[in-house]
Amino acid sequence: MSPMLEDRFGRRIRNLRISLTDRCNFRCTYCMPEDGLSWLPIPSLLTFDEVERLARIGVGLGIDKIRLTGGEPTLRPGLEELVARLARVPGLRDLSLTTNAFRLADLAEGLAKAGLHRINVSLDSLVRERFQELTRRDALDRVHEGLRVAAHVFPGDLKINVVVMRGVNDDEVVPFAEMARRRGWIVRFIEFMPLDADQSWQREQVVSGAEILAQIQERYPLSPALSQDPSQPALDWVFEDGRGRVGFINSVTEPFCAACDRVRITADGKMRTCLFATRETDFLELLRNGAGDDAIEARLREAIYWKELGHGINDPEFIPASRSMSQIGG
User: Fold this and answer.
1) Is 178 within a domain?
2) What are phi and psi of 189, to 5 degrees?
3) Which helix or strand (DSSP H or E) is residue 303 part of?
4) What DSSP string describes 268-302?
5) What DSSP string describes 24-38?
6) Virtual CA dihedral for 287, 288, 290, 294, nearest 10 degrees?
């Protein structure tokens, strides 16, 4: 048996995303209803001990990147303590966090000192009124302040993730590209995927990465980055005048499933081997019923072995995800 984690298609799994909560302080229109969702009861969430144990077992099997997600992970009390514990796991090369940045100005310095390497910020509009419509929160100023502080304290690249939706924010592609040029941050444009709670996604709302690239190219010439990591979802392009870079995550029109090296664990301890998985593997039950590390490793190997070949968004028989993005964890 390989000492590393591999699926039946020979893909080696190195990237683990762990959700810390399904709760969020925003109510993004493409993610959840205005009144929120039925939140998981606190006792059903993975404890920090359980998160650390899963991380240690996974890293021992070749996982070298962990990203903490939500919901909104900064809502989880004691986040700095968990980051410090994970940062000490031998063999973990990269520890990052995805956030909406609402609380980042207050937390960034402590998270950096605890050992967090990088921050990814989800931000879909630079226009205050539109931001408020999308998130149902008047919070753009706080997000900008969080970005400013994070850019100052974190040594790794600051990445801004923008979900582009036709007729909603597709007119902000160039302004976001200009942010990348002005700030030196990496702005990544993400095709709109069917991960909304009410399953109202329509293919017509998808703005392809090719369209987005063409919009930017009309104003600022771009060239593909010389170095591309095939395991990463983003295709990176650099501005030809040397001022910054942007990325394109073309999940719908150009699936990158063949090189996918990531799996996810939800806040209640269920592993999903794809965002659009129709099955989950329960690790919470094992953890709370006295299972040894060998039993957890065996279940981890089995779950990953059966990882899906692809997400199937473009298949006629496609079945939408059984949970929304906030419930799965980005």
Assistant:
1) yes
2) -95, 125
3) helix 293-305
4) TSEEESSTT-S--EE-HHHHTTT--HHHHHHHHHH
5) -S---TTTS-TT---
6) -10
Q: How many domains does one find in the chain?
A: 1
CA-based nearest residue to 70, from 301, 265, 236, 205:
265
In a domain, 288, yes or no: yes
3-state secondary structure of 41: coil
- H-run or E-run covering 312: none
CATH number (domain holding residue 155): 3.20.20.70
SS3 content of the chain, % helix, strand, coil (to 5): 35, 20, 50
The pLDDT of residue 270 is above 80: yes
pLDDT of residue 254: 85
Q: Is residue 6 part of a domain?
A: no
- Residue carrying structure tokens 């090369």: 93
What pLDDT does 3 receive? Answer: 78
Closest CA to 102 of 88, 122, 82: 122
**Structural domain span for residue 94:** 15-328
Predicted local distance difference test score (pLDDT) of residue 16: 97
Cis peptide bond upstream of 71, omega within 30: yes
Q: Which residues are CB-contacts of 74 (< 8 A; sequence separation ≥ 6)?
A: 97, 99, 102, 103, 104, 107
Residue type, 244: G
End-to-end CA distance of the chain: 30
Buried b (16+ CB within 10 A) or exposed e, 228-251: eeebbbbbbbbbeeeebbbbbbbb
Distance CA 188, CA 175 (A): 13
Over residues 147-198, the pLDDT tens digits come to 999 999 998 789 999 999 999 999 999 999 999 999 999 999 999 886 554 5
Domain contains 7: no
CA distance 78 to 179: 32
- Alpha-carbon gap, residue 228 to 253, rounded angstroms: 19
